[in-house]
Amino acid sequence: MASIPSNDVSENGHGNGNGPSPPRAKRPRAALISAAQIRDEFAHHDPAVARVNNGSFGCCPASVLEAQARWQRLFLAQPDAFYFDGLQPGLRRSRAAVAALVNAGDVSEISLVDNATTAAAIVLQHAAWSFAEGHFARGDAVLMLHYAYGAVKKSIQAYVARAGATVVEVPLPFPVTSPDAIITEFHAALAVAKAGGRKVRLAVIDHITSMPSVLIPVKELVAICRQEGVDKVFVDAAHSVGQVPVDVRDIGADFYTSNLHKWFFCPPAVAFLHTRKGGPITSQLHHPVVSHEYGNGLPMESGWIGTRDYSAQIVVPEAIHFVNRFEGGIEGIRSRNHEKVIEMGRMLAEAWGTFLGSPPVMCGSMAMVGMPCCLCIESDDDALRVRTMLRKDFKVEVPIYYNSRQVKVQEMAKDNNSDPVTGYVRISHQVYNVKEEYERLRDAVNKLVAEGFTSAKLRPAEKIIYSTEVWTVASTIFYGACTSQRRTVKMQETLA
């Protein structure tokens, strides 16, 4: 669909006809947005920073921020009227809009929460109770991807592992060459999880992994879970809405969550959790923050967790209005972002003599690009320090991933000089990005290579090896690995 229709639920925001009015009434579709208007919508971004990291925190246009501010003022002007008459109708409008966006069967299947991490806590909390109350046997398995989001991994440990679950990880390869490679590893890990007659109670599957960023064949993995008797499937799709098409009925998971503030232009923090209608587990799910609505269903519990700012959750229709100003609506945005991020990724890979971390078909609006091996990124700490240096010294904001060779059966990917690549940047493309930002990233890394920089220079002094013998050997290896690459960079600079 080229645009998302407005929902017909309480468009005036009134619960009984006497409540507060919403910030904006229903209105006709605006003309297509221009390049100048896009710049105006994101003029609040720091112009000094090349922000090629939409994936971490998303973005919100000025028009949606203005709508949010009107709701905030409405609450502050008369809080009682807002809470009693305006809040729930406003949330229902947003829930209905999300239901239409992801093809949910009914608005009752959609609960609004702060973020995907909260949604994970809701699902995992129920699984922990099932172990504690004897519905699951100690030792039953929970399956998750090795590249599951860090907070979700810790939630799995905090909730279900502590309650007695056996946690089995799917050791995904990276770089990855095809969806089949992931499916093969998933089958193998599922066999491990079922070994000895164990029941697999829950599979946690990412739709798009965060670091490294890879589009997972989620529909196929859900189908495998159904075939293999996995009790429940939870899809952590924190990055999906706005990056890839989402049809929750077609995917078929029991639980599906996605943030709306990452790729759908909502202010932080708002996400949704979809639960399939009519399932016996639906009434047993509860928000981790217990408030007065406890027991009245997850949508109501999530819609009232005490006094707080709910405005981000109410302006989803305004975000929909914003995306519908673009040619092709959200589908057009997704398509253009994908094309641009692949184009920019290939430009960086060519400049650095490396490659994309996954084929374009396994990318949405984010792509992994190998960094020059001579930067010698050898740990997560190295990656973070180089990222911080790029931010502070070059005004470039981009996450860096250290490939720690966790999948031992996979040979390390090598660059054009046959040297192993251990560091990758994760670039994003959103409507506000321009080519010059990626060129600044390219030039910053090339400058570091030309100057002989290595991540070792950023390490704390006590972690640097001072042994003359070891340093001589290391320097020899480093020089051999990097000389040809530096010659290439210097030649490019000369030609430029």
How would the blueprint of this fold be written?
Elements: H1 35-41, E1 50-51, H2 54-57, H3 62-77, H4 79-102, E2 110-113, H5 116-132, E3 141-145, H6 150-163, E4 166-170, H7 179-194, E5 200-206, H8 218-227, E6 232-236, H9 248-251, E7 255-259, E8 271-275, H10 298-302, H11 311-314, H12 316-323, H13 329-352, E9 366-370, H14 380-394, E10 396-397, E11 400-402, E12 423-428, H15 435-450, H16 468-495
Parallel strand pairs: 1-10, 3-4, 3-5, 5-6, 6-7
Antiparallel strand pairs: 2-8, 7-8, 9-12, 11-12
Main β-sheet, in a few words? 7 strands, mixed
Tally of domains: 2
Determine the oligomeric state from the structure: single chain
Under the CATH scheme, which architecture of the largest domain would be assigned? 3-Layer(aba) Sandwich
Major sheet: arrangement of strands: 2-8-7-6-5-3-4
Give the name of the CATH superfamily of the largest domain.
Type I PLP-dependent aspartate aminotransferase-like (Major domain)
Distance between the termini: 45 Å
Envelope shape: globular
Order of helices and strands: HEHHHEHEHEHEHEHEEHHHHEHEEEHH
Q: Identify low-pLDDT runs.
A: 1-21, 464-481, 487-496
- CATH topology name of the largest domain: Aspartate Aminotransferase, domain 2
Number of helices: 16
- What structural category arises from helix and sheet content? alpha/beta
- Give the overall average pLDDT: 88
How many E-type strands? 12
Region (Disordered): 1-28
Domain Aminotransferase class V: 92-340
Protein name: Aminotransferase class V domain-containing protein
Keywords: Pyridoxal phosphate
